[in-house]
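sry for the spam today, last one i promise. struct tokens for design, 973 residues
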């Protein structure tokens, strides 16, 4: 690979004009020079010398392909995509063809007004997305007949693993056995095996018929049981007897289920299930070779505080109006840390919104119509196979048992049969050597059924079978709220979508300066390929020769990420940053066990670490020992040495973030890594701040052993309002054998994790490549930037942060700087003095920034009472100045309060944010003017983003928890 210098492309008159680096970097070269002058340095390299310690700087450029223009990169990727072969898929097993309504495709999935928002922690400017997520929760709660649902998880298999953890927590760690029916989807069983091993849970796979008959032995050490409904072979079993037996034994019942099937069959909440999990993929989202897809989890009210992920609830704002916000956040990992029962940070928000809008658009009648059509097609196949003497149906007690969409058939030499069908463009699922299964979906047609029957040599004799659910028919109503019964024409749906979009602040409005979150440009050229059919329509268990384009793209992407990180191997499987942490720690644990040092279970974590770090370490089976930071915010080397020595016999890992969470490149980082290695441990680097390292240093250069990469930060996958994300791990050569295994065992590495580890830690996600369909985004970013472009991106991110520090230092105390007085790519404003001087908190500042049209920086983390700002390389000098002007304007308001020129209790900060309906009301009760409230800066008079509601009362919402669509009456009162 070669790196092309920027000068060659800039001076060559025949070079393409659409050079991506110029589109990605917010300020052109002349503005960057002017910004450097304000800092007293003459080049980006000179600034880099001041910021990045010399001992860890890369001495060679990244060995990456030369940068391509936008249209060249798209042409290259299209060539790769053409190597994929999208056959008709009847594989099923949790992944199905769907029809995504074009109105949702264009106005949500392909719309930056929906995919560029941040997680809705600032609820007043996230009301549209929060309403869509309440619709999702209501949809799940209604269809499962369970009262509480969260706002999505990562995939069905990991949701099942989270439900197992809920059962374990409910048993207070005293019940250590979890039972799984053998007819669950194989990827679900295997992901649960990995999680059970890491948490010290004994997972037992048991006979499904014994489960269904209530004859499974449920001892008093069993915390829960997992069943699939309908099961992986298509059968619908009655689990009433099992539920009764389980509850008598004190165990919980978890049901993995299918939302489309639940429109027709008795929901799990009606037969006593405690927790339901599954995927909303078939509600409009493409298979995408495995993801991203919104998983769901629902439960009884008793267990809601153990539920992982985010829950959207209803509260009231300062004027008493209803307003949505994230509920009971005290459950979450960033607060509970090592006491958390889950490390979940990313949710699949964008796919969840698509699924909710799919339900809104179709409504209960439309969903039922789709389900009945799928069911009838399955019976058409079923009846004609029966007429053709194929049977008995292996997943049923009798040939006449109930099914929804899947038929399983006995056949000799299933592998050969499946291969012959694939040659005809038909993908069937090989269950084992003597069975295959066929699943129908929304995209299936009569001709598809005929083609499948042709593979068996069976003609269509019965064209009008009468499907039956044999007593499993659903009688209860669902989706009765008006939102699911009002927007069934495209015109009305379009207006509803746009109405919600207008209530959300995204990158289409202004920069989102969240420290440690890297909210940079998500370029249109990067986003275009994700909806190409060649990437979107592949089943994750399709034959490998049909995914040659995916394989080549991922091989290239993995090689590039390995080069950027200075490591030897990469796994793309973890489908969130938290999953990457978990997978990386399991790789370390596997390595220690392979050396007969499985007793090493101590994880050292600095007190400044992300909340997911201790939560992930606990879930990976480790014990936490905190390491102090010094007065400059750096890891205390002395305390680290003492803790490493004290725990030398059991030291497993040190988890660090670099640059640090305090926004500096710690000069002692190589010494820190060496201390850990000298005491037998491994170094895990959290990749949240990798953006500052691009081409300048690397995790390998500092001495780390493994690093997870937030592709939704450094590598431009959009945050999607809180997901999807991707968290691949890069590892040194000695950890490569311990990368995650294939979820369905195609690599031959699946085993019950009670024995010594051999060559794998098992899968951590449901699909081998995680959320594969969004991997074209980082591929495009790296391909269009090249090695020099990536290096410049890191340098400009550092420049932008230091430029802002230079402007703000006169008005705010900068909490931490490096030895040269510079910061890395982010910095912390100390707002703690304002509380005593003026009664102003960081929450007040965050709400006031909404009046200026900005999202707040990261609040009170890693230090309480502070704001952490990360501008990224994509923001222009003009936008940086605009945010600086807003912060300086707010600082002047704080000074006026402190001086007594503004009332301490009645001022624009305490009253913020100011919605339009408040500013324009007949009554104005404040001592400050409407002008000061609504138009605090010149730009707000030309383009104003209005917060949808006033300041929200979070405690009220937690005391009166409502997380499904409220009734019209309750909203009106």
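last one done:
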């Amino acid at each position: 690979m070669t790196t092309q210098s920027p000068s060659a492309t800039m001076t060559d008159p025949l070079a393409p004009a659409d050079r991506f680096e110029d589109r990605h970097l917010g300020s052109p070269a002349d503005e960057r020079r002017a910004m450097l002058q304000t800092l007293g340095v003459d080049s980006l390299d000179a600034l880099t010398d001041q910021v990045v310690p010399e001992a860890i700087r890369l001495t060679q450029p990244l060995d990456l392909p030369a940068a391509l223009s936008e249209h060249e990169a798209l042409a290259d990727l299209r060539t790769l995509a053409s190597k994929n072969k999208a056959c008709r898929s009847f594989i099923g097993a949790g992944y199905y063809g769907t029809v995504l309504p074009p109105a949702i495709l264009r106005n949500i999935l392909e719309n930056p007004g929906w995919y560029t928002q941040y997680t809705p922690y600032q609820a007043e400017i996230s009301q549209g997305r929060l309403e869509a997520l309440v619709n999702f929760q209501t949809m799940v709660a209604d269809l499962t007949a369970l009262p509480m649902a969260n706002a999505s998880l990562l995939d069905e298999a990991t949701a099942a693993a989270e439900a197992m953890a809920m059962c374990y927590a409910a048993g207070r760690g005293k019940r250590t056995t979890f039972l799984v029916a053998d007819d669950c989807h194989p990827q679900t069983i295997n992901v649960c095996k990995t999680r059970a091993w890491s948490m010290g849970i004994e997972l037992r796979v048991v006979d499904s018929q014994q489960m269904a008959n209530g004859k499974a032995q449920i001892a008093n050490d069993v915390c829960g049981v997992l069943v699939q409904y309908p099961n992986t072979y298509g059968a619908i079993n009655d689990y009433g007897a099992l539920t009764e037996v389980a509850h008598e034994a004190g165990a919980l019942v978890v049901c993995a289920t299918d939302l489309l099937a639940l429109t027709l069959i008795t929901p799990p909440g009606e037969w006593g299930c405690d927790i339901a999990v599954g995927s909303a993929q078939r509600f409009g989202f493409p298979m995408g070779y495995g993801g991203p897809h919104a998983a769901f989890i629902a439960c009884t009210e008793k267990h809601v505080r153990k539920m992982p992920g985010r829950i959207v609830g209803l509260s009231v704002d300062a004027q008493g109006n209803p307003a949505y916000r994230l509920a009971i956040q005290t459950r979450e990992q960033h607060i509970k840390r090592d006491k958390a029962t889950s490390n979940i940070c990313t949710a699949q928000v964008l796919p969840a919104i698509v699924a909710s809008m799919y339900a809104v658009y179709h409504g209960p009648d439309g969903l039922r119509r789709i389900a009945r059509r799928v069911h009838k097609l399955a019976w058409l196949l079923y009846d004609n196979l029966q007429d053709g003497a194929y049977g008995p149906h292996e997943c049923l007690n009798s040939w006449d048992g109930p099914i929804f969409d899947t038929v399983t058939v006995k056949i000799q030499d299933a592998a050969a049969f499946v291969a012959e069908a694939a040659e005809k463009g038909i993908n069937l699922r090989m269950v084992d050597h003597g069975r295959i299964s066929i699943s129908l979906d929304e995209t299936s047609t009569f001709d598809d059924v005929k083609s499948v029957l042709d593979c068996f040599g069976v003609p269509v004799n019965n064209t009008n079978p009468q499907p039956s659910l044999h007593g499993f028919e659903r009688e209860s109503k669902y989706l009765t709220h008006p939102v699911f019964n009002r927007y069934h024409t495209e015109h009305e749906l379009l207006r509803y979508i746009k109405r919600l979009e207008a209530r959300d602040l995204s990158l289409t409005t202004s920069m989102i300066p969240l420290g440690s979150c890297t909210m940079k440009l998500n370029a249109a050229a990067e986003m275009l390929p994700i909806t190409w059919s060649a990437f979107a329509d592949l089943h994750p268990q399709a034959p490998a020769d049909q995914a040659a384009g995916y394989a080549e793209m991922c091989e290239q992407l993995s090689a590039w990420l390995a080069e950027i990180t200075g490591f030897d191997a990469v796994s793309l499987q973890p489908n969130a940053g938290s999953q990457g942490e978990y997978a990386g720690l399991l790789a370390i644990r596997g390595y220690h066990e392979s050396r007969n040092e499985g007793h090493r279970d101590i994880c050292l974590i600095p007190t400044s670490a992300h909340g997911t770090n201790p939560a992930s370490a606990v879930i990976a089976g480790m014990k936490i020992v905190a390491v102090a930071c010094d007065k400059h915010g750096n890891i205390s080397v002395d305390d680290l040495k003492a803790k490493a020595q004290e725990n030398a016999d059991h030291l497993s890992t040190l988890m660090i973030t670099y640059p640090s969470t305090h926004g500096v490149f710690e000069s002692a980082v190589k010494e820190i890594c060496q201390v850990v290695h000298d005491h037998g441990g491994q170094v895990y680097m959290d990749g949240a701040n990798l953006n500052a390292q691009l081409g300048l240093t690397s995790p390998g250069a500092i001495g780390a052993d493994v690093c997870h990469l937030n592709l939704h930060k450094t590598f431009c996958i959009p945050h999607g309002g809180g997901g999807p994300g991707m968290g691949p791990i890069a590892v040194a050569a000695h950890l490569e054998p311990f990368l995650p295994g294939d979820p369905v065992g195609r690599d031959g590495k699946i085993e019950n994790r009670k024995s010594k580890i051999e060559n794998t830690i098992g899968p951590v996600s449901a699909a081998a490549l995680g959320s594969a369909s969004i991997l074209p985004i980082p591929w495009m970013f790296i391909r269009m930037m090249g090695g020099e472009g990536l290096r410049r991106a890191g340098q400009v991110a550092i420049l932008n942060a230091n430029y802002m520090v230079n402007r703000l230092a006169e008005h705010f105390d900068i909490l931490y700087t490096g030895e040269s007085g510079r910061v890395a790519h982010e910095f912390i404003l100390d707002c703690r003095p304002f509380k005593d001087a003026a009664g102003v908190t960081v929450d007040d500042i965050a709400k006031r920034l909404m009046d200026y049209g900005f999202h707040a920086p990261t609040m009170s983390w890693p230090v309480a009472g502070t704001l952490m700002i990360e501008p990224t390389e994509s923001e222009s000098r003009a936008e940086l100045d605009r945010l600086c002007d807003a912060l300086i304007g707010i600082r002047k308001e704080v000074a006026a309060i402190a001086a007594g020129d503004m009332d301490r209790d009645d001022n624009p900060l305490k009253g913020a944010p100011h919605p339009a309906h408040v500013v324009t009301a007949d009554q104005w009760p404040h001592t400050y003017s409407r002008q000061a409230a609504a138009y605090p800066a010149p730009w707000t008079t030309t383009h104003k983003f209005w917060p949808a509601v006033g300041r929200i009362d979070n405690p009220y919402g937690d005391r009166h928890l409502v997380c499904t669509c409220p009734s019209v009456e309750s909203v009106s009162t």
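Residues 1-8, 395-399, 748-758 have pLDDT under 50 and may be disordered. ok im logging off now
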